[in-house]
Amino acid sequence: MANPKKILNDPKKVVGEMLDGLVLANDGRLRKLDRHAAIVRTDLPDSKVALLIGGGSGHEPIFHGFVGRNMGDGAACGQVFAAPSPDIIYEAAKAVHRGRGILFLYGNYAGDNMNFDMAAEMLEDDGIDVRTVRVTDDVAAAPPERTHDRRGIAGDLYMIKIAGGASSQLNTLDEVERVARKAVANVRSIGVAVAAGSIPETGKLTFELAEDEIEIGMGAHGEAGVSRQKIAPADTVADLLMDKILGDLPFRRGDEVALMINNLGATTMMEMLIVNRRIRQILDREGIKVHRTDVGTWLTVQEMAGFSVTLLKLDDELKRYLDMPAESLGYSRM
Predict the structure, then answer these.
(1) Known catalytic membership, residue 221
(2) Among 36, 59, 64, 97, the one annotated catalytic
(3) Is 64 a catalytic residue?
(4) Do 103 and 146 reside in the same domain of the chain?
(5) Separation of alpha carbons 89 and 55, rounded Å
(6) 331: in domain
(7) Which of 30, 205, 257, 258 pairs as cysteine with 26 (C-beta 3.0–4.6 A)?
(8) Residues 220, 284: contact at Cβ < 8 Å?
(9) Which CATH number belongs to the domain containing residue 295 in this structure?
């Protein structure tokens, strides 16, 4: 596969120029911090528990596209597929803090963990209460007894949506953290790719895959999956992914879930809807009720072709925050 073409200026300036465009596209609802690759809401209420999200760029619209009403209050942005630095996170956190503490919410990757932890220590030295919740929804990344080692993938969206809703309604950092942790404990995802993404600065592909092969369970940066096999019909692929998800929580007859099918960058809506059809057949057979379905593009790996499937087990509390209206460039729901 040839390296993909991109319409850019300087490949080394993609993040800054992208954030400039993102702020302008929000029509005054966001601002970019001076000297830092971070954005924050301009309409933050006083005395609000703050929600700071963030991670590497190149996965648009996550994370910076999810800053807005009942979503993230700000986002710290790294370079493409790289964690934001501690100083970026620190300045973004100071900008969103409104006196009730800050929840850090991000995917569970080593660089993000290290840099967000360093920023949290800096903020605690300033007397600011910080809690951290890491998203660990990727069932392919580690066995069930090691969920703390799993990566965060598209389940990040539902976690941001729930934590964003909770942080706008609840008055204490303890309560917002509790809701976010409950959400993380009940979300599971897995992805499949038929073609790799690329890194804008180098133009290189994230991995090599033969024309007749698919990769099962890769990470958000193209990390190796759990298996590689010959391409198969959509129903067969959906069966394989759902088999890995359903037994992991485990999901049981009578459960109610939110279902997400996420485009990794270059997959058509047609393909995802065909997969959705099969997934709903499986869930109906298993006696699992779908409360809501989201089919779209939320966590990408540049132009990677493929998709991921996420199931979030719901209770009344999680459902309430998930269903609250949300407004951001990358995800809105009225």
Answers:
(1) yes
(2) 59
(3) no
(4) yes
(5) 10
(6) no
(7) 30
(8) no
(9) 3.30.1180.20
- Cβ neighbours of residue 334 closer than 8 Å, sequence gap 6 or more: 325
Report the relative pairing of strands 74-80 and 50-57 from DSSP bridges: parallel
Q: Is the pLDDT of residue 1 over 70?
A: no
Is the residue at 332 inside a domain? no
DSSP H or E run through 77: strand 74-80
Q: What letter represents residue 184's amino acid?
A: V
Strand partners, 294: 260
Residue 220 pLDDT grade (very low, low, confident, very high; cuts 50, 70, 90): confident
What's the CA gap between 182 and 278, in Å, rounded? Answer: 28
- Render pLDDT for 176-191 as a digit per residue (tens, 0 to 9): 999 999 999 999 999 9
> Which pLDDT belongs to residue 3?
59
Q: Is the pLDDT of residue 224 over 90?
A: no
Smallest CA-to-CA distance from 219 within 98, 329, 56, 65 is with 56
CA dist list (Å): 138 to 154, 308, 311: 9, 10, 11
Q: Tell me the residue range of the domain where 276 lies.
A: 187-321
* Residue 133 · residue 117 · CB < 8 Å: no
| 95 and 233 both lie in a single domain | no
Rounded to whole angstroms, the Cα distance separating 164 from 71 reads 4
Cis, peptide link before residue 63, omega less than 30° from 0 = yes
Contact between residue 109 and residue 55 where contact means Cβ atoms under 8 Å apart: yes
